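Office hours follow-up: a student asked to see two folded examples consecutively, so here they are.
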Amino acid sequence: MTVIEKPAQLETDNLSYNLLRAALLLFKKSPAELAEAELNKAKIQALNEFRIESRVLNAPEAAAVIITEQELRQAYQEIRGRYDNESAFLGDLEKNRLDTASLMAALHRQCKVNTVLELIASLAPAISEVEIGIYYHLHADQFHLPERREACHIFISINPDYPENTCETALLRAQELAGKLHKKPYKFADLALRHSECPTALQGGVLGAVSRGTLYPELDAVLFSLKQGEVSNVVKSEIGFHVLLCKSIQKAETLSLAKATPKIRQLMKERARHTCQRAWIAGLPIPESGENNHEQ
């Protein structure tokens, strides 16, 4: 059984906030909603994060960092804005062993940690064109874009409990729509809105740009056989009948180095920033028990 250390009383509020963050991140639930094993895991992560934050705040670089009232208020309002009213907000704080004062203190701590880490990340070396070129050639597969087709569909379900959705009737309905659209494909969005039983009906049946293997196999085969602007015959899948429209075709392509450079630069920049932060944190002294930072 894992033993969770009890922090000093002055650390309790900050640790409660860390526990809330860990629970939401790991399980998308508040600590009060967690099973015992989940809670134990969240506590471990919260305590580990708290220890790292304490090392960051005890570093010389943190001494000159000042969090303004505006920054703090903005962080507070971001959380407060998730609630419909003050009562629900305060109630949730209480359930997580927090109040407005302790939340503000925890946010101040978090803002300061984030600012220090941002300062450290800014020291990361710039990414050179040579490094970008090497990455491009070593990861060429990442810059190959498969053929994609912008698709729309009208869906009629099969449900023998409803006369209009028996297999025979649903097929006739779909065939009637396909017949109309072969003559007037420009009416696809209007007919999808009026007749399709898919939630995409509200957007005119738009499925978006899809690559091979995204849709049901039957739909996939038909969509990638259509010409641009062409409407299919009725296609049956395991869930019902469909009429497809291929709005446009985006042919497969491999991005050139010039086009891929912004993406590569951003990716390598973020990696360099994180590496710089991790190396800096690894070099920080570990405070002895009772020496955690309690700045306000």
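And the second, which I mentioned at the end of office hours:
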Amino acid sequence: MNQVLTLMEGQGIKPDVVTFSTIMNAWSSAGFMDKCREIFDDMVGAGIEPDMHAYSILAKGYVRSQQPDKAEALLETMNKSSVPPNIVIFTTIISGWCSATRMDNAMRIYHKMLDSKVSPNVKTFDTLIWGYGEAKQPWKSEEMLQLMEEVGLAPAKSSIQLVADAWRSIGLIKESNRFLSRINDQVVKDDISVERNLGLSFSNVMQAASEQYGSNSVSGGNQMLFREAEFSSVNLWSATRSMFMNRACRFRAKSPIICQKQNLVQLGMYGQIVNSCGVVFLN
């Protein structure tokens, strides 16, 4: 890899931080962290200041090679530079200590992150919860879930599942099921929320049609229209609910928007309403 840099310099091409980071990433992915660090040091020696990506490559590489102490040492280096550590760097180092089941060190990095005015996110807490599970301390995993709520973060389903897995790992199925029931309760709440959003969306479509064509033409003058629309709303609800329940999509229902030149035939609206709108949910 050093030959690449030599060749570039020989051709009058000056390597930059992207060049060095690319070579660092190659050595890191291959597991040669000594070579990766050597390239990093060469970059600094050439007067090129490392960016966040370069530091992330080092941190992740050290964690993969089970050297969380060297990953942690980067924090001091970064604090002395113009690139202070961010949430990704802190969480990466925390994951390294969690993998080594050194939860005392993981929590020390967590508090160091808070002292640096960097706010934890769901990924940070999921990492800590998983770490305590690996350390066979599910009660600590549960404490992390409570701490998560105290700092104003709503636990994700993954967070609750990790606590349930932690209890199950030591054979306490009853405690595990206690958290699995929380996941089921959250799914029910999500169902209700989606149903309300869809009901509101369909109501907005009716209101838009009424405003465009007049209340008489839509409601009073054409009862069949509403019967057709009411029937089709069931199909709309079924199809859209399936979309929302598909976890791979991860869509969130937001305010419906009006799409021009799209018929409402799919909603069962025939007759006069031929250039109205469809309901589109944006992520």
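Two things to take away from it. The domain at 2-184 is CATH 1.25.40.10 (Serine Threonine Protein Phosphatase 5, Tetratricopeptide repeat). The chain has a mean pLDDT of 75.
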